[in-house]
Design brief:
Layout lengths: L1 E5 L3 E2 L5 E8 L8 E6 L5 E7 L5 E2 L8 E6 L4 E6 L8 E7 L6 E2 L4 E5 L2
Parallel strand pairs: 2-11
Antiparallel strand pairs: 1-3, 3-8, 4-5, 4-9, 5-6, 7-8, 9-10, 9-11
Length: 115
């Protein structure tokens, strides 16, 4: 699995950001895809998933603020993040699959929310 996350920067609380994930090697449109994050000193946290048919799921912590989407033609996954909070600070990873089948393949991208 080869995945490359990008788009992470430092933003102020209340700001917006869009992360991208470029996929290669596997048949992208066939699989569900997910975003995860890991804050300093904490474990991996699931952020969003999208099925191969476009159905989306979110945990309560980001529901209404984050939107996952995909462009199968470009083999890209996106995460639109709005109304960012300090607690959203983390390294964000994309993954092939979701739940127990999720497999990460990139270095992640750092998102820092700070005033």
């Amino acid at each position: 699995v080869q995945l490359a996350e990008s788009g992470g920067v430092s933003v102020q609380p209340g700001g917006s950001l869009r992360l991208s994930c470029a996929a290669s090697v596997f048949t992208f449109h066939y699989y569900s895809m997910s975003w995860y994050r890991q804050a300093p000193g904490k474990g991996l946290e699931w952020v969003a998933s999208i099925s191969n048919g476009g159905l989306t799921k979110y945990p309560d912590s980001v529901k209404g603020r984050f939107t996952i989407s995909r462009d199968n033609a470009k083999r890209k996954l996106y995460l639109q993040m709005n109304s960012l909070k300090v607690e959203d600070t983390a390294v964000y990873y994309c993954a092939k699959g979701d739940g127990s089948d999720a497999v990460r393949g990139g270095q992640g991208t750092q998102v820092t929310v700070s005033s």
